[in-house]
Amino acid sequence: MKHIFYLLLISLFLGACGSSKNYLERSNADKALSDAVKKLSKKPSDDDALSAIPVLYKNLSKDHLGKIESYRKSSDISRWDKIIHEYNDLQSAYSAVINSTPAFRLVTPVDYSGQLLESRQAAAEEYFMSANVFLEKEGRDNAKRAYNYYKKADTYVPGYKDARARRDQAFEKSIVNVIINPVQDNSYFFNSSWGNYGYNYSNEYFQQTLIRDLSNVGSDRYGARFYTDWEARRNNVKPDWVVDLSLRNMSIPPASRYQYTQNRSARIQTGTDTSGRAFYQTVTATVYITRLSFNASADMEVRINELATNKSISYRTFREDYRWQEERGSYRGDSRALTSYDWSMLNNGGMYNEPRKEDVLNELYRKIYPQVLNNIKYSVDW
């Protein structure tokens, strides 16, 4: 009996040590301290939390303060983001301990709210002053950086000086006027027998529709305004970027014909005997199928250039395919062996609903369009 008691005592001791060791061996000391404080708040006599909390607080304080000291030696403006992050973690540890009576008996936490406030003020000032420098420079990238720095200043100290007004000024300066030209394909549209149908469709879909969809989101989202070439001239808008769309490698081949046969069989009930047992018979048929099909394809080349410098903003080519096929058929044999698909082939009078070239172009454009739209959005977005 005494032997069992000692074994139980040892197991309890080892379990307690293992649990405390678990707190101290975690890679995230901040989370470990938070968990230990919560545990102690629920169970003030918990030995694991009692032994771990003083060590955890000492270690994490040393770690965060060491990082802060290291970041202060840097001249990179982003050091303030890191410093403030470390002070926030220290202040979270302070709040966790100060709000737990049993944890507060173990540790005297340090209040870093003053240092945090000073750091936020210093960060706001440096971001604000740096933003002023970039705002005076030309170019969209400088305006974007000024915008982000003013936003940082206002985030760290809400209402800091006139950061919000200057942020809006930087955003307005960053907006680019973008001309979207109609789709060009001299090799196809003007050398085909389509008349103007296909060309008008491409112009509507890839110029005016692009502009409509992009403008519905507005310059507030993308930092860009979109125009047709005609609208830019009419409104005396000086364009910054131009989007050129070119249809390449358009291929709509004649439908190819392929013939093959399928043998069908079915076991059907032909009657019953006097006892009600069913009689079955196997019936067969041969289906003669003619398939018409073609694979159409097209590439859309999208070039976005900065007009002043002829710098390429983006160059992408998007390829799409459209496959059409229909089958028609006839048969010999017993019609009861035919499937529902066989009947669908037989009941159309042998006529094929081959799409017009305009319809094929419609499908190709419909599949390419979202890719072109997203590419332009990505190029103008911050």
Describe this structure in words.
With 382 residues, this protein is an alpha/beta fold. 53% of the residues lie in helices and 23% in strands. The chain has helices spanning 2-25, 29-42, 47-72, 79-98, 101-104, 113-136, 140-156, 163-174, 197-217, 219-222, 229-234, 340-346, 357-380; strands spanning 176-180, 224-227, 241-251, 256-272, 278-306, 311-333. β5 (278-306) and β6 form a beta hairpin.
Pick out its properties.
single chain, six-stranded mixed β-sheet, 382 residues, 13 helices, alpha/beta, 23% strand
**Unreliable segments (pLDDT under 50, ≥5 consecutive)?**
4-18, 189-196
- In round numbers, the mean pLDDT is 88
Structural class from helices and strands? alpha/beta
C-alpha-based Rg, rounded = 37 Å
Share in helix: 40-55%
Briefly summarize what is shown:
The chain is of the alpha/beta class and 382 residues long. The protein has 13 helices and six strands.
What topology does this entry show?
Blueprint: H1 2-25, H2 29-42, H3 47-72, H4 79-98, H5 101-104, H6 113-136, H7 140-156, H8 163-174, E1 176-180, H9 197-217, H10 219-222, E2 224-227, H11 229-234, E3 241-251, E4 256-272, E5 278-306, E6 311-333, H12 340-346, H13 357-380
Parallel strand pairs: 1-2, 1-3
Antiparallel strand pairs: 3-5, 4-5, 5-6
Helix pairs in contact: 1-3, 2-3, 2-4, 3-4, 4-6, 6-7, 7-8, 9-13
